[in-house]
Specification:
- With 255 residues, the chain is an alpha/beta fold.
- The chain has 7 helices and 11 strands.
- The strands form 2 sheets. Strands 3-4-2-1-5-6-7-11-8 form a 9-stranded mixed β-sheet, with helices on both faces. Strands 9-10 form a two-stranded antiparallel ribbon.
Length: 255
């Protein structure tokens, strides 16, 4: 199995090193192509107005001056044009990608791009920062991911679906199990805008979320990781809402 590893935290991110080791447990044909710099929150964007530069770090490792989606496109259509990957793994992201995060996340976007290219793709993220110890527990993802990925690949999933895996903020032995979940809804009251003043007395702002637990619905990705479970969510690329579409057809009729 030929595996492409990518991320949105950048080529030097510790999570990328973790994911490379995970992939190497599954295959001896592992390639890495990820953004030169951090691209968190870049979503499913492409660099259409700027040139994309690629830096070769080793025979199978490349840094791409662009977004996560650029990295996947460059890998599949150029770097690995002699043989496309059988599987794309994106992550391991520093922080969870659940609920509304999936629309912002570059980690998810890389898996989306792989899915659009017809390649089974999985996004992986490691939650952190909810307990007293704010250190990222990379060992949790590294310990549990290989077996989960093997089972997912054996089971298979539809071509227009990507898999989103989130590991809870607990040590590997404290994980309570695996739950197949639905995308949750973030408590938007946790969004904060922090205003600061620069050296010229001009205001500037930082956006972020309060790192406190909300009260999500059972069966959602948020609920799973808050309760020490690994969340596995199938995400559909088709964003059409079928029930609303039918209602609008009835309301608008035909021209």
């Amino acid at each position: 199995m030929r595996i492409l590893v990518t991320n949105d935290d950048g080529i030097n991110a510790p999570g990328l090193q973790v994911l490379t080791r995970i992939a190497q447990q599954l295959s001896n044909d592992v390639w890495v192509a990820s953004p030169e710099e951090e691209q968190s929150g870049s979503a499913h964007s492409l660099s259409l107005s700027n040139p994309i530069r690629v830096r070769r770090l080793s025979p199978r490792k490349f840094a791409v001056k662009g977004t996560p989606s650029d990295s996947v496109l460059m890998a599949v259509r150029h770097i690995m044009k002699d043989g496309a990957p059988d599987l794309i793994l994106s992550g391991v992201n520093r922080g969870q990608n659940v609920a509304d995060d999936v629309t912002y996340s570059g980690t998810i976007a890389a898996a989306m791009e792989g899915t659009l290219l017809g390649i089974p793709s999985i996004a992986l993220s490691q939650a952190f920062g909810f307990g007293e110890n704010r250190a990222v527990k990379w060992s949790t993802a590294e310990h549990h991911a290989p077996d989960i990925i093997r089972k997912l690949v054996a089971a298979g999933w539809p071509k227009d679906v990507l898999i989103n895996i989130n590991f809870p903020d607990v040590l590997p032995q404290a994980v309570k199990g695996i739950q197949v979940t639905a995308q949750g809804k973030r408590d938007q009251s946790l969004v904060r805008v922090e205003e600061r003043i620069d050296a010229r007395a001009n205001p500037y702002y930082w956006l972020g979320f309060e790192r406190i637990l909300s009260n999500p619905s059972e069966g959602t990705d948020l609920h799973a990781i808050y309760n020490g479970m690994i969340s596995v969510s199938p995400l559909h690329m088709n964003l059409t809402h079928a029930r609303t579409r039918s209602a609008l057809v009835a309301a608008l009729g035909k021209l």
